[in-house]
Backbone:
């Protein structure tokens, strides 16, 4: 008898929980409101903008009326994506070919390229996950260290350094850090990469704390079809 009641109670609890999750999912899917990007400024800057999530984000922002500054490695693809954006949405685009694994001088070029634009949104999308072995077993550890630091850490710090002063001056700005996976716990073979992600996470939260009161919003998006829908 007692076990029967425990069984019924447990089943009821799980059923309620299931309904709750389904309702929450439906709510997020249908009602989630996106930031009003135009309220922050006319231009969005997207790093790593020609493939996958970065490209999809560029289209989403353009569909909401944002002009798009695309920074990426491949000139040909940049041109194609920019053309596609302009033909689909009635916005302006600007492209700059940059390899974020090159040394720090690239940021002078980026600063020149962005000079004078009314930038409301920065999307930090560039990054790499090329690490594939235990620390000492990488085929070229120096290269892996250099690339991971440049692509996953330096890019975010330097892009923020370039774009934030204008945002602070305007008292508005949105910095999005896109991420596919929430960090739960480290797994083998990705020590450096997983650690760079924690860096970005902590940096984003700390920066948000420092600049929230000046109208700057820094958000972390775990990309799912919800953001892109
Ligand atoms: C490893 O990468 C460095 C660049 O950090 C490069 O100079 C070197 O030639 C590479 N070594 C090998 C064996 O590929
Ligand atoms: C570490 O990186 C790998 C490769 O991208 C990823 O699959 C894994 O989820 C990461 N782990 C954490 C804890 O972030
Ligand atoms: C953005 O921050 C989240 C955690 O808040 C982190 O998981 C993610 O890796 C960060 N994005 C990048 C591109 O590093």
Residues:
């Amino acid at each position: 008898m007692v076990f029967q009641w425990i069984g019924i109670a447990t089943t009821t609890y799980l059923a309620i929980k299931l309904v709750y999750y389904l309702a929450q999912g439906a709510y997020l899917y249908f009602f989630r409101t996106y930031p009003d990007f135009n309220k922050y400024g006319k231009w969005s800057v997207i790093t790593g903008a020609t493939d996958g999530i970065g490209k999809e984000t560029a289209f989403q922002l353009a569909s909401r009326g944002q002009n798009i500054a695309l920074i990426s490695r491949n000139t040909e693809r940049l041109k194609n994506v920019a053309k596609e954006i302009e033909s689909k949405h009635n916005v302006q685009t600007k492209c700059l070919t940059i390899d974020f694994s090159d040394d720090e001088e690239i940021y002078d070029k980026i600063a020149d390229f962005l000079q004078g634009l009314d930038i409301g949104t920065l999307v930090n999308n560039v990054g790499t996950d090329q690490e594939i072995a235990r620390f000492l077993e990488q085929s070229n550890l120096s290269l892996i260290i250099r690339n991971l630091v440049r692509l996953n850490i330096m890019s975010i710090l330097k892009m923020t350094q370039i774009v934030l002063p204008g945002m602070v001056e305007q008292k508005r700005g949105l910095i999005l850090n896109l991420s596919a996976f929430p960090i739960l716990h480290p797994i083998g073979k990705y020590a450096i990469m997983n650690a760079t992600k924690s860096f970005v996470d902590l940096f984003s939260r700390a920066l948000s704390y420092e600049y929230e009161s000046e109208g700057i919003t820094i958000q972390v998006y775990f990309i799912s079809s919800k953001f892109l829908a």
About this structure: DSSP finds eight helices and six strands in the chain.
